[in-house]
Description:
There is one protein chain. This protein has strands at 19-20, 27-30, 40-44, 63-70, 79-85, 96-100, 104-109, 115-118, 125-126. By secondary structure, it is mostly beta strands. It has a single domain, classed as SH3 Domains (SH3 type barrels), CATH 2.30.30. The strands form two sheets. Strands 2, 3, 4, 5, 6, 7 and 8 form a seven-stranded antiparallel β-sheet that branches. Strands 1-9 form a two-stranded antiparallel ribbon. It starts with 18 loop residues before the first strand and ends with a strand.
Amino acid sequence: MPFSACTFCSASPPLSSGTFMGKLSSKKRCADEDCVYALSLARAEDDYNAPDCRFINIRKGQLIYVYSKLVKEKKAGEFWSGSVYSEQYEDQMGTVGYFPRSLVTERHVFRKANRTIPTKVNDFFCE
Length: 127
């Protein structure tokens, strides 16, 4: 199932004003070169309040489509990018952001994250 409005996949800088935040990782794992295909569906096991605009808020029990998995680096935790799927939180649907891998359980794997590609500055852009 392709995800066509991927904020973090653009090859050129976004046209809107915003801020390029620090990179959380230099590499990510995806199912394809552009990270547009959902890898899996995960369920949040706890609430998570986003510390900044690179991240998404998640609530315990929510389903999240996972699009990429950042490669863990020395001092950083392991983060995945995804989009909340929930009829209760329609305002967040379609918003792609990062969340800690430790707070979710993968429920269904659609595709394997078999490509490791470098992250780009746009992967950590905040509007």
